[in-house]
Design goal:
The protein has nine helices and no strands. With about 170 residues, the chain is mostly helical. Helix 1 (about 1-10) packs antiparallel against helix 2 (about 15-30) and helix 8 (about 120-130) packs antiparallel against helix 9. The termini are far apart.
Length: about 170
């Protein structure tokens, strides 16, 4: 773990070769360390080697599958490589880990929307809205309704569907 921390420091100092050597030394000592794999992924990502970073994050998640920090970075790399199905899968995993947080729901809906899964996006949004019943409507809620309407328009669902705010 100290090797991996040193690897990040060296990378920030512009000493990339030494950084990679330190992280590889850490992995040599413990291939099952999610921390080592995470840092290796950070180094790869800093060099814009997103495919390699994804491999590192997959390995990190083998050993710590619910690590939110790793999942968020993994998510960014999947988006950068346009792995939109993978992006959706990771968004869903984040939602399941933090179902009480609005950002997880909205992020998952966005992933469905990007893939053109308009009906699924609307269903997830409406399910989320049901969990918010009884809470006072705020600006963010009105933005959510506007987003829902834009998905309906884009998906051609404006007619024949009854839309309520409850």
């Amino acid at each position: 773990t100290q090797s991996t921390g040193m690897g990040l420091t060296l990378n920030c100092l512009g000493r990339k070769d030494e950084a990679y050597d330190n992280v590889k030394r850490g992995l040599k000592n413990n291939l099952r360390s999610h921390v080592c794999w995470h840092v290796f992924g950070l180094l790869q990502r800093s060099d814009k080697k997103y495919e390699e970073a994804i491999k590192c994050y997959r390995n990190a998640l083998k050993w710590d599958k619910d690590n939110l920090q790793i999942l968020r970075i993994y998510l960014c790399c999947r988006y950068k490589t346009r792995d939109l199905e993978g992006y959706k899968t990771t968004r869903h995993q984040l939602l399941m880990l933090r179902a009480s947080q609005r950002v997880g729901w909205v992020g998952y809906v966005i992933s469905l929307h990007i893939l053109g899964e308009f009906d699924n996006a609307l269903n997830v949004l409406q399910t989320f809205r049901k969990t918010q019943q009884g809470k006072p409507a705020d600006y963010e809620f009105s933005e959510l309704l506007l987003y829902e309407a834009s998905i309906m328009v884009e998906g051609g669902e404006c007619t024949g569907r009854h839309w309520s705010t409850s």
